[in-house]
Specification:
It is built from 14 helices and 18 strands. It has helices at about 15-25, 50-60, 65-70, 90-95, 100-115, 160-165, 225-235, 245-250, 280-285, 290-305, 310-330, 335-340, 345-355, 355-370, and strands spanning about 5-10, 30-35, 45-50, 75-80, 85-90, 100, 120, 125-130, 135-140, 145, 150, 170-185, 190-195, 200-205, 210-215, 255-265, 270, 275. Helix 1 (about 15-25) packs parallel to helix 10 (about 290-305). GO terms for molecular function: FAD binding.
């Protein structure tokens, strides 16, 4: 990649801005387009594991700011219908070495890159036409433009992947669970979880939103309609025991609702021509626990390879390096673990929480799969 390269990145969450940082550092001209009108605040807690993730954050100059905003892993007490404690999920089991809210991390990355990169909010790509020298791009609102490269960093429902590779149904496997994050009136400041077969709700703890996980076949709904997502949640949790009436009342009054399916992407290549996928667009595994660290690692690797070779060679090397990381991420179904469909499954999961040595073993296996356990290549811009 030459220092006159122009790159369009679709998606302003984590992978996109992280890639933009390294590309701009190498001299590229970077534009980031984001369908949402602004950065989405809050969101779920994301975490980093291992020395490599810490080194990446340090190289980007944001490690101390991430530490300043960290939430810290929070123990979650699972209770019975009568509120009696049944088991505790240790905070370190889900929190990694360093935990932060996704929205806070996104804000840090935006502040890092906005002085050197162009951000376009409230717009979306409508077509991609590759030519011998670039990619002609049209937008919903903005004027058409041509870029040397286009990157899909726009999540599991990637618009870039749909346009350049084919429809979502060909690449995204739905795992018959949904999750939701809801900013709603607090019911308790304690971190408490409650299960019934096929559904789980987690309240309180740190400053995270209320967290829902429930079993469901694939649903059709408007992913940009908070009212429609709220309706689905209210239907899914109707008749909930424990403090169900309070939860449903608070949910009905909530304004910020995010609902999505639990699934993973299965795709045989990460690039086509001048278009490449990064982060959840190429290898999502929802709630898998290593997606954020993997996204930052991928951003570093992709930009690093582009700093050393033309896009054809760089994309091939990027895929070769990342393929093993992504394969390690695509394990299990967090929905079945958090919201077992049978009472026996809930009992068995709670029993696991009481067997600390088994949890420790699971954590070690997770660390082996994490990108944070691999050494970073050294690139010239670093």
């Amino acid at each position: 990649m030459t220092n006159t390269t122009t790159v369009l990145i679709s998606g302003a969450s984590i992978a996109g801005p992280a890639l933009a940082y390294w590309l701009a550092r190498d001299g590229a001209t970077v534009t980031i387009v984001e369908k949402a009108p602004a950065l989405r605040p809050g969101g779920q807690a994301v975490d980093f594991k291992g020395e490599t993730h810490m080194e990446l954050l340090s190289r980007m100059g944001i490690l101390e700011e991430v530490r300043r905003r960290q939430t810290g892993g929070t123990d979650v007490t699972f209770v019975s219908r009568d509120g009696e404690p049944l088991a505790v999920m240790p905070g370190e089991f889900t929190g990694g070495d360093l935990e932060i809210l996704r929205g806070d991390l996104s804000e840090i990355l935006y502040d890092l890159t906005s002085p050197t990169c162009e951000y376009v909010f409230g717009d979306s790509i409508t077509s991609l036409t590759e030519t011998a020298s670039g990619v002609h791009v049209t937008f919903e609102k903005g004027a058409p433009r041509t870029f040397d490269l286009v990157v899909g960093a726009d999540g599991i429902h990637s618009n870039v992947r749909n346009l350049a590779f084919g429809p979502e149904k060909d690449y995204v496997k739905h795992l018959n669970y949904y999750y939701a994050l809801v900013d709603m009136a607090p019911i308790t400041h304690e971190a408490v979880g409650y299960n019934e077969p096929g559904r789980m709700v987690q309240l309180g703890g740190s400053k995270a939103p209320t967290f829902f996980v429930f079993s469901s076949p694939e649903l059709t709904y408007d992913r940009y309609s908070a009212d429609e997502q709220k309706r689905i949640l209210l239907d899914a949790y109707r008749g909930l025991g424990w403090r169900g009436p309070e939860i449903l009342a608070a949910l009905a009054g909530a304004s910020n609702v995010y609902l999505d399916s639990i699934g993973h992407v299965e795709i045989d290549r990460y690039s086509t021509g001048r278009v490449v996928l990064i982060g959840d667009a190429g290898y999502a595994h929802t709630l898998g626990g290593i997606g954020t660290g993997l996204a930052l690692t991928a951003a570093y690797v992709l930009a690093g390879e582009l700093s050393q070779a033309d896009h054809r060679t760089a994309f091939g090397r990027y895929e070769e390096i990342l393929r093993s990381f992504a394969k390690g991420a695509a394990q299990g179904n967090a929905g079945r673990f958090l919201a077992p469909r049978r009472r026996y499954g809930i009992w068995l999961r709670n029993l696991l929480f009481r067997k600390r040595f088994l949890l420790d073993q699971m954590a070690k296996e997770g660390e082996k799969r994490a990108a944070g356990q691999h050494r970073l290549p050294d690139y010239s811009f670093a």
